Amino acid sequence: MDYIITNGTVVNEGTLSKRDLFIHDGRFVEDATSLRKPQTFSAEGCYVLPGVIDTHVHFRDPGFPDKADFATESRAALAGGVTSVIDMPNTKPQTTSLDELEAKERIAAQKSAVNYGFMLGATNDNLQQLLSIDPLRYAAVKLFLGSSTGNMLVNKADTLDRLFGESRKLIVAHCEDESIIQANLRNYKMEFEGKGGEKADLHPKIRNREACFVSTYKAVERARKYGTRLHVAHISTSTELSLLSNKNLEEKNITAEVTPNHLWFDDRDYAELGNKIKCNPAIKTNDDRLALWTGLVDGLIDTIATDHAPHTLAEKSLPYFTAPGGIPSIQHSLQMMMEGLFNPAACQRDDHNEVLQEWMPLLVTKMCHNPALLFGIQNRGFIRPGYFADLAILEPGDTLITRQSLLYKCGWSPLEGQTLHTRLRQVFLNGMPAGQSTPMPLTFCK
Fold first, then answer.
1. Is residue 120 part of a domain?
2. Does the first or last residue of the chain, that is N or C, have fewer Cβ atoms within 10 Å of its Cβ?
3. pTM for the full model?
C-alpha cells in the first residue's frame, strides 16, 4: 500500500517545514508519480518526525518472563513512537556469542512489533570469540564497567586493553567504578540495613558522582590511547561532561547518551517515588539534572535513549538494598522529551515559537538522526528518498498516564498520574500504519 501524509509540520535534518510526504513500497519517494492508488493520511496540526530509534533497551527476553518480553515491550515502544530498538545483552542466557545472538534474533522475529537489533556483551572471558564475529551482525559491544542486573562486569585490565585496541565496533560502556560502589555499599549497609533507614535516597550516595566520574575518566583515557570509538551510556553527572566534546558527531570518537529519566527526575523525587526511580547509574541532584540538559543542548551529549529496564512491582517494593535497579520508560520517552516545548527554560528561550524552531530539530537529531549515524543503522533515522518510512506523528493534546494505559508487562511507571502535553496520532513502521507492517531486523555498516 502507498501513502501520502498531508499537511504536517515535518521535522527533519534541522528544519521544520509544512509539506506532504510520499511513501511507495515502504520507503519515502520524492513525489507522487510512482504511487499506486495511495491512501491519504492527514497530519494537519501535527509534528511529523522520523520514527525514534532507541539504542538502549532491556526487553528481558529470554530469561525474565515475569518482568518483560519482546512482545509486550515492543508494543509499548511502538505506542510511544519508537520504531526501532537495540536490545542489551544481559539476558538469560547472556548474549555473548554468535549462537546466543542468533537465538535472540529468532525471538524478536517471532514477537517484535518494532524493528530490532542487538548488542553483544563483553565478558572477562569471551574476547576472542567476540572479536571473531562479523561486525555487520550486531550494533555494538556492550561493556559493563560497573555491575548491574545480570552482572556482566568486566574488570580485567588486559581484557579491557585488548578490547579497546582491537574492537571493530563501537563500544558502549556502562561507567561506574565497582570498587567505589562496593565500599560505599558496605558502609551504608552497616549503618542502615534493617535499622529503619534503608531508603532509596541512599542510591545516589552509594552509586555516587565519584564512582561515575572515575569510571568514565578511565574509559575515555583508554579510548584516547587506542583510538577507540566509545559511547558512554546514561551520563548522570555534571562532572562527566568535562570529559566530552561538542564537536560535530562525525568528528568524534568519544560520544555520550542521556536518558529521559536522568533529565526528568532528581534526588528530591526519591521521597515520593522511592525504588521506582532506583536505576543504575543513580538519578542524582537537580544541579546534575540541569547540567545534563545544558550538555544536551550544547552538543556534549549526542543521543537520547531510555535504558528501558522493567522489573516487577513486587521486586520494586522490596527493601532498598534488595530491590533491583531499573525503570520502565519507553512508552512515553518521546512525549517526555517533547515537554521541552512547554518549558522554554529547557532551551533557555522565552518565546514559544523560538523554542519550537530550536528544540524540535534538536530532539530529532538526538533521538533519530544521531542514533542511526552513530550505530551505522542503514536507511533509517531520516526522512529521505529511499529510506524506510518510519514516522512518529504527534499532535498537541493531553495524555494522562494511568496504570490502565501502560503496555509494559510489569504494569507500572514512575510517571503514573502525570499529564504530558502531546499524544501520538499515528505511527508508521516500514511504510505502513502501526500494527499493519512486518518489523525487520536492522542492518548495520561497520
1. yes
2. C
3. 0.97
